[in-house]
Amino acid sequence: MIHETAIVHPAAEIGEGVEIGPYSVIGENVKIGNGCYIGPHVVIEGWTTLGENNRVFQFASVGAQPQDLKFAGEKSELIIGSGNTIRESVTLHRGTSGGGGVTRIGDNNLFMAYVHVGHDCHIGNFCVFANVATLAGHVVVEDYAILGGVCAVHQFTRIGAHVMASGGSMIAKDLPPYTMAQGDRARVMGINVTGLKRRGFSAETISVIKKVYKLYYRSGLLAEEALTEIENLFGDIKEAMAFCGFIKASERGVTR
């Protein structure tokens, strides 16, 4: 159902069972999948694709031009998966040619009110962004990460899977998977044990992750020495290797 006051470009592709509320604006190059709910006063523009069963609430701005002084009006995209909830006044921006041209969001994420996702960000699945969490450009957020209210993430930073960052954290370096962080500038405080239990990690696996954390953060070893020790002790444990692989791939450096 499309409300009579909504403005939907004739070229926009609207799936079956889509509801578009009063005074919303849907642009020419927008594609909206089946079963989506678009509330009142929503703007979806640019080359933006939404999968199925997304819910977008009032005053959200989806697919606007990136806030990048180098942007020259080139074609760029915002691609959103399925099952996401995008609450009031969220802003999700398209990519830039300097970042691959695509901002990409996976499935089943929750963006609470006033969250901002900058250009060229890549977000996985089942993430939660509390109110006013802010991602600068080129940020990567892996599956099941949770960012508390008013978190800010520096451009080109990576947030690992199952990370929990407390409200108000200022994150300027990569956060390894499974960790908890807080503060300005954020520091790693431990392992996200509660989150891992909720995700179905076994007690044995959580125990290994704790040992990996202690080796890297609390043993007094140099970073390379700690990674070597982790690989020697837990080389057959995928979670341990994911932790090591994330750190080795870091370009900004790792939050300590």
UniProtKB/TrEMBL annotation:
The keyword Transport does not apply. GO terms for cellular component: cytoplasm; membrane. GO terms for molecular function: acyl-[acyl-carrier-protein]-UDP-N-acetylglucosamine O-acyltransferase activity. It is an enzyme of class 2 (transferase). Pfam families: Acetyltransf_11, Hexapep. It is found in: Cytoplasm. InterPro entries: Acetyltransf_C, Acetyltransf_C_sf, Hexapep, Lipid_A_LpxA, Trimer_LpxA-like_sf. It catalyses: a (3R)-hydroxyacyl-[ACP] + UDP-N-acetyl-alpha-D-glucosamine = a UDP-3-O-[(3R)-3-hydroxyacyl]-N-acetyl-alpha-D-glucosamine + holo-[ACP]. Keywords: Acyltransferase, Cytoplasm, Lipid A biosynthesis, Lipid biosynthesis, Lipid metabolism, Repeat, Transferase. Its EC number is 2.3.1.129. GO terms for biological process: lipid A biosynthetic process. Residues 174-254 form the UDP N-acetylglucosamine O-acyltransferase C-terminal domain. Pathway: Glycolipid biosynthesis; lipid IV(A) biosynthesis; lipid IV(A) from (3R)-3-hydroxytetradecanoyl-[acyl-carrier-protein] and UDP-N-acetyl-alpha-D-glucosamine: step 1/6. Belongs to the transferase hexapeptide repeat family. LpxA subfamily. Involved in the biosynthesis of lipid A, a phosphorylated glycolipid that anchors the lipopolysaccharide to the outer membrane of the cell. Homotrimer. HAMAP family: LpxA. This is Acyl-[acyl-carrier-protein]--UDP-N-acetylglucosamine O-acyltransferase. It comes from Desulforhopalus singaporensis.
